[in-house]
Amino acid sequence: MEKINTELTQLLDIKYPIIMAPMFLVSNTAMTIEGIKAGITGAIPALNYRTDKEFRAALSEIKNSVKGPFGINLIVNKSNYRLDEQLKTCVEYKVDFIITSLGSPKKVIEACREKGIKVFCDVTEEKYAQKVEALGADALIAVNSSAGGHAGNMPPGQLIPLLRSHCRIPVISAGGVGTGGGLRKMLELGACGISMGSPFIASVEAGVSQEYKQAIVDYGANDIVMTDRLSGTPCTVINTPYVQQIGTKQSWLESLLNKNRTLKKYAKMLTFYKGMKSLEKAAFSATYKTLWCAGPSIEHVKDIRSVKEIVATLADEYYSQAEELAE
């Protein structure tokens, strides 16, 4: 397959304009290495590593295993007390790009600029997009309403043209794409590439449980629901019987605590801690407490395959649709 030429493939020198999206607990070195070999790139949340020693070992493993660009996702708000340490390590290892989420990327952009590290920023609206562009961001990650995890408010058909009309830097679409046809559609809307996560959960290289991978195959877009019981911020999960049992809304006590000006910060921290522990248990072990994070793009997943096969299918579908349009 020939290279798909976009601003993203030129920016990172990759064959296909696809970022394997950073997924909490899911993304790992094996997935990233295979993604790079297949002609795309990937990003891993720094929070997937509990210590700086583990983080450094992962960065070394990728750099020693494959030649090609990869990125790291950093949470840049006050909840991430390890941000300074993580950023210092990213700069030291000269990762190719950083994706910032949930806060101001100013510190990250300033630290990365002189090292030639690209900074892509998660945005859900034009106001914030303009702010990060003014700070010197290299591209926008347009998180739309079909994204997995913390989704945006607008569909891609609205968000991408809006950002393109208000900003000059490249726009990367995040959410809802699981096919090569979907990739083509995002490029036609004005995006220079996509950030795709959920379909890669059902990959051979993903380190999550077989039950989680099979759920990505068995469930579809209509089974995705939004819950605020995991992190205090609305997050998408698969509507398993367990999720139906516990509900997707906070209890009256949790809601009350989150409205109290004095206790709100601590209540949110507790909700986040409990939620992440629940996700971690469900992701890596067989349990009836099936809390599995995913997005609507699981609709297109029909079996568990290698990262290489997933990427190859996306490319085949992209070019097949081009041939159909040309006829």
From TrEMBL:
The keyword Flavoprotein applies. The keyword Flavoprotein applies. SUPFAM superfamilies: Inosine monophosphate dehydrogenase (IMPDH). InterPro entries: Aldolase_TIM, NMO. It comes from the Bacteria. One of its GO terms (molecular function) is nitronate monooxygenase activity. Keywords: Dioxygenase, Flavoprotein, FMN, Monooxygenase, Oxidoreductase. Pfam families: NMO. Transmembrane segments: none annotated. Belongs to the nitronate monooxygenase family. NMO class I subfamily. This is 2-nitropropane dioxygenase. It comes from Fulvivirga imtechensis AK7.
